[in-house]
């Protein structure tokens, strides 16, 4: 049996319970469901969020749950649930939010289909959510997914009636967006620096740009793009319309051969913000994906004119500089000759410049460096060669200029890039045998010749010493000519005259004297030995002797006859002595004047004896 | 004239020359120590111009040029001092210092004429020796073959003639007083370089070098032995 108090409490509880339980009609009118998926478009491996928001009147918990099917997506994390209660205009409202983090699997289309939300036992079907998935650039590592928390409510709901439909927004005029490719110059020479630029012109806000296709530049050598190139945006006006222009791509090209070439189109996928009017006076924008393509470009490459000798393919206005460091070295030390070639050309393809002949130097193969940098709209290359030069002997040199011919496309002619002449001096190294202590300043003057040798003109002394023996020889020759050596005949005659025996009789003495005379006259004058003594004078006269000598000889012959007739030598001593002296004198005279000088043996011996 | 008078006369002449030379050197030394290098140089050169020179004077002229930092002239006079027989250690050190500052010793070059020029003194003294040998044989050895004696004397004469011709026409040692450049080979010899030179076309001189010859104007070259 229920008492009165208990009855009242029960009725109150039943009333509260009745009030708590919403009527089906009330549920159908109060539930509002919103669903969205962000961002759009999505990138592969980049998270997107599926958000379901449920709003309903009443105080009770919504206990919302959802089911759906995924295409090209997978749940990375979630669901994350939140509920809140608020009062508005005296009415209680509950809002619940469900969020899933999804991961796109591959580029292309992706979708969330068969989306149904279950709220307080009611199932509401929601429209499919589709999105485009694009290739993503390298980015942060995808965080590992957490394990999905088991939702005990997810299995309770099966089907729900669809919620309130949203009103479609009204679109505004479509903005203009296009791509434009440029090549400058359009008719380059072979090897001339050519610039390819790809511009995006847009009248809409661009959220993201994804290049899909770029030309492959067949027939051109592509130089590296400068690192850290910034994409600058500028405002331009075309046919009275304003556009924002951004440079998407720039390449430096060098034509490899003459001819006509086509540069392929470029394609870019863009995501722009398209504005729309959701309600009068309320302007919003939503992302939209576009693809744009540039036009095909034609490039006519011109051939170079006939090249001069030594041309190695350098095209572009080039500069060549030379630097020598240091300019003064010691023999055996190294100096560095740096050649710097710079300009807007394909310098990497050029061969090493050849140095002129450098006699007296050892030249080593160079070290090379290469770099490029932008100067305005030109890509300027700098190539350096460093030669090691080592002088082999002390000398001063003038290194001749180095020249490199190049083709200047601006005036269509060949020119010479040339360095100036360089000066270099090499000084001797340390002299072998130098003492460790060597004066840095010269010694002063000397006041005495210490320890030097006294002055002597050795050349003149040498000449004197050479001439002296010649003088002596001449003097000796003269002396010997004036005092000639007595001929052997005279020597024998003198010996015969002076060697007369002391005890001889006058007759014998006379005979000896006569014999000596006979021999002398035979040897010197050729007088026959058998000729009588009395006829000697006449014979001599006939042979050319002087009259005085002949008469003297006649007298001597007479005295000789007288000597034979003397009885004793004692009486003839005086006569004999006089005869000998006069014979010696006359004999020397006759020999000296003889027409045929007698032979001299040098040892005093009589010739022919 | 008697021999004794002749000897006395020669001795007086030598003494007068010696006195003049000493006075000039002393004056130059005094000016050098007083710091007036230009005046000292002038005094030394006046002494030389009068026909007097000795190794001391040549050295003093050289070191005065050296202190005036006129290195090519300094090297020239140091070489002249060496040429007339000086062997002063100060001379050798100053010459090495000057060479280090300019261009080092003369380059090593080869050639028959250069070898003969370097050894010209040996040729001359050989001629003297042969001449004395011949006259000695002539005096002492009466039995010597006339042909051999004539050959010996002829050889001496030949050597003497060779010495004379080398002195007159052969390469001579010199010092460049100014830079000299060969326009064909771009070889440049610095001022102060010690070279061997032979008479070239006109007033030019051919410098004997390791890779050929280089022609220099005559006013840029001074010889160690000035030719009268």
Report on this structure.
The complex is a heterodimer of chains A (609) and B (228). Chain A is α+β, with helices and mostly antiparallel strands. In chain A, helix 5 (506-525) packs parallel to helix 8, helix 6 runs antiparallel to helix 7 and helix 7 packs antiparallel against helix 8 (569-592). The relative contact order of chain A is 0.07. Helices cover 22% and strands 39% of the residues of chain A. Chain B has 228 residues and is α+β, with helices and mostly antiparallel strands. Chain B is 59% helix and 14% strand. In chain B, the strands form two sheets. A five-stranded antiparallel sheet of chain B has the order 6-5-4-1-7. A two-stranded antiparallel sheet of chain B has the order 2-3. The radius of gyration of chain B is 22 Å and the shape is flat. In chain B, 38% of the residues are buried. At the A-B interface, strand 26 and helix 3 of A face helix 1, helix 3, helix 5, helix 7 and helix 8 of B.
């Amino acid at each position: 049996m229920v008492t009165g108090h208990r009855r009242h409490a029960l009725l109150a509880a039943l009333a509260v319970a009745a009030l708590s339980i919403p009527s089906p009609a009330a549920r159908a009118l109060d539930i509002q469901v919103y669903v969205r998926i962000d961002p759009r478009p999505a990138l592969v491996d980049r998270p997107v969020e599926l958000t379901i928001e449920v709003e309903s009147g009443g105080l009770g918990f919504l206990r919302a749950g959802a089911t759906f099917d995924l295409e090209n997506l997978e749940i990375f994390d979630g669901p994350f649930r939140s509920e809140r209660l608020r009062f508005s205009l005296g009415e209680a409202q509950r809002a619940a939010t469900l969020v899933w983090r999804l991961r796109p699997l591959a580029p292309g289309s992706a979708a969330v289909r068969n989306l149904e939300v279950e709220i307080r036992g009611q199932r509401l079907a929601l429209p499919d959510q589709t999105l485009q998935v694009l290739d993503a650039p390298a980015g942060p590592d995808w965080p590992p997914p957490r394990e999905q928390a088991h939702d005990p409510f997810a299995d309770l709901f099966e089907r729900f009636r669809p919620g309130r439909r949203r009103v479609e927004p009204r679109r505004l005029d479509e903005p203009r967006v296009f791509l434009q490719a440029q090549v400058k110059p359009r008719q380059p020479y072979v090897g001339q620096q050519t610039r390819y630029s790809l511009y995006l012109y847009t009248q809409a806000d661009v959220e993201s740009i994804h290049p899909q296709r770029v030309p492959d530049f067949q027939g051109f050598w592509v130089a590296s793009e400068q690192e850290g190139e910034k994409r600058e945006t500028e405002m331009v006006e075309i046919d009275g319309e304003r556009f924002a222009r951004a440079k998407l791509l720039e390449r430096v090209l060098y034509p490899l051969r003459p001819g006509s070439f086509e540069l392929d189109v470029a394609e870019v996928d863009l995501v722009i913000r398209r504005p729309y009017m959701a309600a009068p006076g309320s302007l919003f924008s939503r992302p939209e994906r576009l693809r744009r393509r540039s036009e095909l470009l034609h490039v006519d490459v011109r051939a170079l004119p006939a090249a001069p000798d030594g041309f190695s393919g350098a095209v572009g206005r080039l500069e060549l500089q030379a630097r020598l460091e240091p300019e003064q070295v010691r023999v055996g030390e190294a100096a560095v000759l740096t050649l710097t070639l710079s300009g807007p050309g394909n310098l990497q393809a050029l061969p090493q410049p050849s140095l002129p002949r450098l006699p007296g130097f050892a030249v080593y193969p160079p070290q090379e460096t290469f770099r490029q940098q932008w100067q305005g709209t030109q890509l300027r290359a700098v190539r350096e060669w460093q030669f090691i030069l080592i002088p082999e002997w002390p000398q001063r040199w003038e290194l001749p200029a180095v020249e490199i011919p190049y083709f200047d496309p601006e005036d269509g002619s060949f020119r010479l890039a040339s360095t100036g002449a360089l000066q270099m001096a090499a000084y001797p190294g340390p002299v072998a045998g130098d003492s460790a202590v060597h004066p840095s300043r010269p010694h002063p003057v000397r006041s005495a010749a210490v320890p030097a040798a006294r002055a002597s003109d050795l050349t003149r002394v040498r000449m004197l010493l050479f001439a002296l023996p010649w003088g002596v020889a001449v003097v000796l020759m003269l002396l010997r000519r004036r005092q000639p050596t007595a001929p052997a005949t005279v020597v024998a005659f003198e010996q015969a005259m002076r060697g007369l025996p002391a005890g001889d009789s006058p007759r014998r003495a006379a005979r000896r004297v006569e014999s000596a005379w006979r021999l002398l006259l035979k040897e010197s004058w050729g007088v026959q030995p058998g000729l009588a003594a009395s006829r000697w004078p006449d014979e001599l006269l006939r042979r050319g002797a002087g009259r005085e000598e002949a008469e003297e000889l006649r007298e001597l012959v007479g005295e000789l006859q007288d000597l034979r007739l003397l009885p004793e030598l004692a009486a003839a001593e005086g006569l004999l002595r006089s005869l000998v002296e006069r014979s010696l004198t006359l004999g020397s005279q006759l020999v000296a004047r003889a027409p045929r000088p007698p032979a001299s043996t040098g040892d005093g011996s009589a010739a022919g004896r | 004239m008697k021999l004794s008078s002749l000897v006395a006369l020669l001795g007086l002449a030598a003494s007068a020359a010696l006195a003049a030379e000493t006075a000039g050197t002393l004056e130059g030394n005094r000016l050098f120590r007083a710091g007036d290098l230009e005046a000292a140089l002038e005094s030394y050169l006046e002494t030389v111009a009068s026909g007097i020179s000795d190794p001391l004077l040549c050295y003093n002229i050289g070191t005065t040029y050296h202190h005036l930092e006129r290195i090519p002239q300094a090297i020239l006079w140091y070489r002249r001092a060496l040429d007339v027989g000086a062997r002063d250690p100060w001379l050798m050190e100053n010459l090495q210092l000057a060479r280090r500052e300019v261009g080092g010793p003369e380059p090593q070059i080869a050639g028959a004429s250069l070898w003969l020029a370097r050894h010209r003194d040996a040729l001359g003294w050989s001629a003297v020796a042969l001449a004395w040998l011949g006259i000695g044989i002539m005096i002492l050895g009466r039995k010597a073959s006339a042909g051999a004696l004539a050959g010996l004397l002829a050889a001496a004469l030949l050597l003497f003639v060779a010495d004379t011709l080398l002195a007159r026409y052969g390469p001579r040692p010199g010092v460049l007083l100014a830079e000299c450049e060969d326009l064909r080979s771009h070889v440049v010899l610095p001022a102060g370089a010690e070279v061997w030179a032979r008479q070239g076309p006109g007033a030019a001189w051919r410098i004997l070098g390791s890779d050929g010859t280089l022609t220099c104007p005559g006013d840029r070259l001074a010889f160690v032995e000035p030719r009268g």
